[in-house]
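Exercise 7.
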Amino acid sequence: MAKIEIKEVPKIRGFSTVKKVPNRAALQGDLKPNTILVFHGKEGHEMVVEIFTPDPNGDKTLPPATMAVTKFTGNAEKVDNAYATLLFWALKEGKSLGSPTREVYLKIDTSQSPPEVEVEVEAPVQ
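Solution. The predicted structure, written as tokens, is:
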């Protein structure tokens, strides 16, 4: 089983854009190192995703949070596997996971399609 850790994530200043997309593949053009995707749920058949770019001069602040965190390395279309890891961990530990969840992209290899990524998947934990 992948390693899960509890992390105090500090507030992060930056710029953001919100998109409604039908699926994860629609976000591939937005993936860059240090980009944070914040998932705000669904509206109809579309996911509401905030694309957050850290920048100390930004006009938006992501609040600090206590997060359950796991790392995923592999095909960008399979990042959802990390959410399953977090969910099984929470059930085993008697914890509740909240929202919004975040994906912090650490590395992206766009020479492949879909891209290979290293991402930290974070879910608020209670």
